[in-house]
Amino acid sequence: MSGTPKRTDRARLEVHELIRREAERMRSLPAGGVSLADEVPALAALMNAARAAIDASLPAAFEFHGRTYFLRSALAVRLEVFDTPAAAVPLVTGASISGEAFGHAPGH
Predict the structure, then answer these.
(1) 20 to 30 A Cα–Cα from 25, which one of 10, 17, 35, 71?
(2) 108 falls within a domain
(3) pTM of the model as a whole
């Protein structure tokens, strides 16, 4: 049982090191290129988690002049992920277009 936290911590460190290496490799490519997720799996997982955080933050309803309106949205977003609060340059940049809508579920 005492070895479990060490392995978990090591795996956590390893994924962040993979992200750093994949991001470094992506930054070395010509600007404006497209990369496939299977080429940079750790970085793709990070970007998917960033997009999921954005989607989860979308409201299903909002108030306007005393009335509740219900919202569904699909977004196209430009993502910049920074690895520290003080970083001047993003670790990775990308774009994501949602194929599904988030928020209000019609008929409920």
Answers:
(1) 10
(2) no
(3) 0.75
**How many Cα atoms occupy the beta-carbon half-sphere of 47 within 13 Å?**
24
> Alpha-carbon distance 26 to 81, whole Å?
13
In a domain, 44, yes or no: yes
Q: Residue 41 sits in which domain range?
A: 3-103
What is the tally of structural domains in the chain? 1
Q: Compute the chain's Rg from CA coordinates.
A: 18
Which pLDDT tens digit goes with each residue over 25-51? 888 888 776 777 788 999 999 999 999
Strand extents, DSSP E, the chain = 61-64, 67-70, 72-73, 76-81, 92-97, 102-103
Instruction: Answer yes or no: are the C-beta atoms of 68 and 61 closer than 8 Å.
Output: yes
- Does 32 reside within a domain? yes
Q: Please answer whether residues 91 and 19 qualify as being in contact, where contact means their C-beta atoms are separated by less than 8 angstroms.
A: yes
